Amino acid sequence: MRKIGFVALVLVMVDLISLGAPFRVAVILPSTINDFAWSQSMYEALMAIQEEMGEENFQFVYSENMYVIADAAAAIRDYAAQGYDLIIAHGSQYGSSLVDIAPDFPKTSFVWGSTAQTFTELGIHNIFAYAPHAEEGGYVNGVIAALLTKTGIIGGIGPIKTGDAKRYAAGFEKGIKDTNPDVQVNYTFIGSYSDVALASEAARTFVNAGADVLTGTAQMTVGAISVAKEKGITWLGYDVDQSPLAPKTVAASIVVDWTVALKPIIAMIREGKYGGEILPLTFANGGLKLVLNDAALEGKLSPAEIIELKALVWETLRKIVSGEIIIEVE
Amino acid sequence: MIGATLVGIATSAIRLATPYLYAAIGEALGQLSGVLNLGVDGIMLMGAFSGFYVTLLTGHPTLGLLAAVGTGGLMGLLMAFVSVTLQAEQGISGIGLYLFGLGLSTLLFGMTVGTVKAVAGFPPTPIPGLSQIPILGEILFSHNPLVYGAFALVPLAWFVLNKTPFGLKLRAAGQNPLAADSLGVNVIRVRYVAVIIGGILSGIAGASLSIALLNVFQQNMTNGMGFIAVALVYFGGWRPLGVLAGAMLFSTVNAIQVWLQVQGVDIPSDFALMMPYVITILVLASMARRRIHVPAALNKPFERGGE
């Protein structure tokens, strides 16, 4: 995927000199562009920006499956040496590599997430950070889960208890408790972003324990979605709209729209600012969006109940945007 | 409540043990014949992908299973050619085979399917009559066909190894190939057959994930299970029953840790995740002294008339 070579370097030099040069982005992804989760959402955002700006003005390349941090660091350095305008290191695990690499390329801008830290305190001024407020998405899915459950038992499946996954889980539990304190919710972390089999077994165990609504984050949850589909229960998704995977199972997805962070970053870089800003992604600024799937809702609720659910969900969104609901994450 | 919980954990454990059983028994056959194949995980991935893809295209998991059998057999043939005929260092060529399977399955998936999709794999097929037995029926007889196959494989492998001429030849090829050769055993052919059967079983192990237990394919979905299967062969002392015991111990502890977390029992998730590995290592260490079955010619290439 990586273009390495002198030719590219020469082309970059020419690009930098000529006016109206395309904006060139390289992105490092821990999984694949079709993972139905974290990496796919970033890929879709870059495709959307390219569509909007035109291929002659915006180009991007990507490296997938960079779960080995040392490999990712080597790729980041290669891209920087090739003169890309912006290098996106799409994962919390890449932060320390950026601290190491960014000072060597002061005219290249780096962005990473989802840990809200730009390292200006270390004298580094070319790192941006994006921070999805996953707890807001988790809260809304929690409200929906509390309204959908009939057994009163709800489960969540996360990868490792950190970053986005932890914030989402905290929001999800609070959303449920605020809506119906009698509902029992447990959230399990399986310790892996890739163990599809264990995610699926966690889902089966939840179903055996009586759960009828499940949620979760990261790419290994496809195993759990498959179980939810088989057992006829409800899944609430995150990162991308997961309903194509199981149209009658995925009742709602919180979609992260990275363009909301990337567009201002591109504008800042064009004006000569290379880092130091943290860009939040929230319901208020459109960085988070809720996608409800009527096909799945209709199988679970009566038309009147669906109207009721939607009313409460929109009210919740309004309160989050206006600041009436504040979700604290430790 | 406690009864239902124990049934749930036991049922989970049976399911989780399935891919390990296929892969580890296949690996045991290869090792008993004298070939260490570390490429199990790569073969599993190729089996998982081919089974998934053919099921996606045709809608028939049985055809998918056949595809996984064929792919696994071919991967086994490749391993046998490299390690038996070319006499390459077995550990290294196995790692090569693993990386090959990992890369190729990812590439083919990207080229053909491209995105996560669900398929209709083997449905759970409760065995009439037996599944009605209280408790045991649910634990043992309410699974999909590939789960039954994995457990049926244990006595079958035991029988073949201990009660058939082929089993005798296979063990002889791994214990003392020169003596076996002088008694008219075609060591090369026996090793080929053993490694190819091992490949087929690893292919089925992968398919048991992609078209029976999970019904999706994802890059690197085996997540290192093939290496745990190799460890289970040592754990089980190269005996099918030992492999069964090891696989059940590992998957039971895994099922318990999943259950503990799902129930919201307040233990750190990292600690829960360590449990299966820690307990496996402890048991392995406590049994270290009575490991007497190591095939003497394991990892040693055979050459007719060699020293």
Could you explain the architecture of this structure?
The complex is a heterodimer of chains A (330) and B (307). Chain A is elongated, with a radius of gyration of 21 Å. In chain A, strands 2-1-3-4-5-11 form a six-stranded parallel sheet, sandwiched between helices. Chain A has a six-stranded mixed sheet with strand order 7-6-8-9-10-12, with helices on both faces. Chain A folds into two domains: 6-133 and 258-281, Response regulator (Rossmann fold, 3-Layer(aba) Sandwich), CATH 3.40.50.2300; 134-256 and 289-322, Response regulator (Rossmann fold, 3-Layer(aba) Sandwich), CATH 3.40.50. In chain A, helix 2 (38-53) links the parallel strand 1 (23-28) and strand 2. The longest helix of chain A has 20 residues, at 303-322. Chain A contains eleven helices and twelve strands. Chain A has helices spanning 6-17, 38-53, 69-81, 95-101, 134-148, 163-179, 196-208, 222-231, 259-270, 294-300, 303-322; strands at residues 23-28, 58-63, 86-89, 109-112, 127-132, 153-158, 184-189, 213-216, 234-239, 250-256, 278-281, 288-292. By secondary structure, chain A is α/β, with parallel strands linked by helices. With 307 residues, chain B is mostly helical. Chain B has a single domain (2-290), classed as ABC transporter involved in vitamin B12 uptake, BtuC, CATH 1.10.3470. Helices cover 71% and strands 0% of the residues of chain B. Chain B contains twelve helices and no strands. Chain B has helices spanning 2-32, 40-58, 61-85, 90-112, 136-140, 145-163, 165-175, 177-182, 187-213, 225-235, 240-262, 269-287. The longest helix of chain B has 31 residues, at 2-32. Chain B is globular and about 65 Å long. Classes of the chains: A alpha/beta (330), B mainly alpha (307). The interface between A and B is large, with 37 and 36 residues.
